[in-house]
Amino acid sequence: MPLHLTLDGETHAIEIVRRKPRLVLEVDGRRYEVVEDVDQGVGSLVVDGARVAVARAVVEEGPRETCFVRIEGRTHEIGLIDPREETAGRDSSRDEIHAPMPGAVVTVHRRAGEAVARGETVVTIESMKLQTALAAPRDGVLAEVLKSAGDTFDKDAVLARLVPADGD
Amino acid sequence: MTPPAAPAQPLFCKVLIANRGEIAVRIARTLRAMGIASAAIHHRAERDARHARVADEAHEIAGDTPVAAHLDADQIVAIARACGANAIHPGYGFLSENAAFARKVVAAGLVFIGPDAATIELMGDKISARDFAAAHGVPVAPSVRAGEDIDAFVAAAEATGFPLLIKAAVGGGGKGMSIVRDAGELRERARIATSEAQRYFGDGRIYAETYVERPRHIEVQVLGDGSGGAIHLFERECSIQRRFQKIIEEAPAAPLAEPTRAAICDAAVRLAAAARYGNAGTVEFILGADGRFFFLEMNTRLQVEHPVTEMICGIDLVRVQIEIAAGRGLPFAQGAARASGHAIECRICAEDADNNFLPATGPIRLLRVPAGPHLRFENALDEGQRVTADFDPMLAKLVAWGETRAAAIARMIAALRELTILGVRTNVDYLARVLATEAFRAGAIHTGFIAEHAAALAPPARDPVARDRALIAAALGQRGFREAIAAVEEPYASMGRWRN
């Protein structure tokens, strides 16, 4: 499950490929070995052996989380999409699956009435040429799935709702 | 030049600073150096602001909004009296050019650190200031005044010739200003300007003057002793403007023919002497490509960009202001005024420079300030502070000096790269792009520079490698992602890899 970031209106996916002995990340499929030394927002980043000074600060304004990153005299304003938010919904009620960004439904994996376990993929969506699996935020039963394959939706749209399973 | 040591007996016991932000902090610094106690004022919404903390004492001022409180002349004078201040320094903006305030300060038995109320009034009205300048041999642009009869105004304006610049008689900041290029749009523009002037300044009088194409904004720092003695501390160039407001200033001016420079400085001194100007002031001029220059206005206060003059002259202008206000007279004769090197100031603003300079708000989460010789960072910023829409979007001023203009530009670009203000959008990177243009380096500047070079000043495409590094840095700053690296745990463990 990659972390999704937005920059200049484009979504990028970052994935952890390997943790040890060195951290290896993939950015939109491009692989980098990364060593980070950042304290209190200031420090350095060594990417594939090249060291750059970096400063960063995260700002949470309502549901938005933005990371300001300054590298080599340029500030990049990067939107963060929390993977838990992505699946759990922004109201943290954990009863809804929200769209983390505008897009279209590719596949509906589960139907209304089916029991799902936390983390199980319910729908796969495509947004800005990237496919993302949206998982159940907790164990439960799907009360409704509001979109079908091919349907489009806006950012934050509710795609499915959960109710607790019997005996929960 | 070494500033004189603080006198054994300070010139004033205590000075109230009727301002806030970087300028209040800067004034407090000089007061401390002079052995004078400082008193700050603050609205309850800015209780924790730096200007209130650095002064020797701080007093709360009441008001529906912070700005309203800072404009409450009676309340501020009462606080000054109550706290035992002998003088008030108004800084710039707020009450600094308010003649009624200056009068109230004096009536309360306090010293106003600035010129007298009558001079503020004379120069505050652009029409009376123009007349005064013209009467004393200072060139003014051909102009027409709008009276009751709009038809007569339109006819007279047409006779003056286009292009014309419509302006409000009082006020500034570009409000009520507009460039009119033909007769067809004159009437409507005049109507809009009148209503804007009425709305913003409570005075609907407007006038139109010959608009100088590709004009440069050149201003002269003057000092007057109040009895007709006046000197200048050279000129500043403030031609880089957005929305009629300066964002980059320098001293001396970018390339300027020596006879023109001398003529402009002489005109400014002539005006200050004729007005029997007492204290520091700035005479602003518009300079055309043909070398002709016209009086624009006189600012009867310390200017935002005064540090560039301080850097080339090796002088503390706030100290000079205090000394003049205390009756010490001018610091030296004109012949002793010296300038060396070149200084540039960049106004750091919370704004979206790439989207029409719209003001931005947000928290200051991280602040790292450049350091080194010949650099000043004038500010009142604190990490954790919120930039709100309550005040002007200017956050700070970065000032750099160099032996040559090229050296000052290089030092400024390096300092801007180092300056880190994160959490709110700023114009830091934009300013660096302006300084890096060939046109700026060549000194080919005028007040339309920003519009003329808009395409070149747009943010360059992000280098893919730099972009990926930034994305990696952002990801590593995200708690969930860090946790995922530290341990394989929910929700990652149950999700697996969805992508092939």
Describe this protein's structure.
The complex is a heterodimer of chains A (168) and B (500). With 168 residues, chain A is mostly beta strands. Chain A has two domains: 3-83, no CATH class; 91-163, OB fold (Dihydrolipoamide Acetyltransferase, E2P). Chain A is 4% helix and 60% strand. Chain A has one helix and 16 strands. Chain A has one helix at 83-88, and strands spanning 3-7, 10-18, 23-27, 30-39, 42-47, 50-61, 64-71, 74-81, 96-98, 103-108, 115-116, 121-127, 130-135, 140-145, 152-153, 158-163. In chain A, the strands form three sheets. Chain A has an eight-stranded antiparallel β-barrel with strand order 1-2-3-4-5-6-7-8. Chain A has a four-stranded antiparallel sheet with strand order 9-16-14-11. In chain A, strands 13-12-10-15 form a four-stranded antiparallel sheet. The longest helix of chain A is centred in the middle third of the chain and has 6 residues, at 83-88. The radius of gyration of chain A is 18 Å and the shape is elongated. In chain B, the strands form six sheets. In chain B, strands 14-13-10-11-12-15-22-20 form an eight-stranded antiparallel sheet, with helices on both faces. Chain B has a five-stranded parallel sheet with strand order 3-2-1-4-5, with helices on both faces. In chain B, α2 (50-54) links the parallel β2 and β3. Chain B is of the alpha+beta class and 500 residues long. Chain B has 20 helices and 23 strands. The N and C termini of chain B lie far apart (70 Å). Chain B folds into three domains: 14-113, Rossmann fold, CATH 3.40.50; 142-210, Dna Ligase, domain 1; 216-452, ATP-grasp fold, B domain (D-amino Acid Aminotransferase, Chain A, domain 1), CATH 3.30.470.20.
